[in-house]
Amino acid sequence: MGASNDAPPPLVDQSVLDRLREELEEDEGYCKVFVGNFIECLPQRIGRLRLALTTGDLEGSVDAVLSLKTSSQMVGAERLAGLALDLEGEIRIEAHQADIAVVLPQLAAMYLRPIKQCSRQTMHRLQAQCSPGASR
């Protein structure tokens, strides 16, 4: 919130992946399983979010955006987590101020394209950072 510059957060915070590896006490196996599961489930998470937003489903939207945010944070996908956090904030504010059946589809129009673009970039970065021989 009080960032001194306008630089976006990194697509992937390598320190989160390093910490995860230490916690799992593995070398590179975590990338194949944990990060692989994140990558595999990401399109489904975004699809659930899209469906909930476009159909005006408040409970489903909150659940889907929290799932996206939390899973992104767990693998260090900082930029994607930030977009999900921003969307979550908008959902929570608008839920009390406007017609949810109108607002959620509007939020979908504003947020889904950047989230989808960021998710593609994030998947590519995670695959590169977790591939054998990748140093960063």
Q: How would you characterize this protein structure?
A:
With 136 residues, the protein is mainly alpha-helical. It is elongated and about 50 Å long.
Mean pLDDT rating: 88
- Please state the overall shape, judged from the principal axes of the Cα atoms: elongated
Number of β-strand runs: 0
By DSSP (H or I, 4+ residues per run), the number of helices equals: 5
H/E series, N to C? Answer: HHHHH
How far apart the termini lie comes to 27 Å
What would you say about this model in short?
The protein is 75% helix and 0% strand.
Keywords:
mainly alpha; elongated; 136 residues
Task: Summarize the helices and strands and which ones pair or pack.
Elements: H1 14-24, H2 29-54, H3 58-74, H4 78-94, H5 100-130
Helix pairs in contact: 2-3, 2-5, 3-4, 4-5
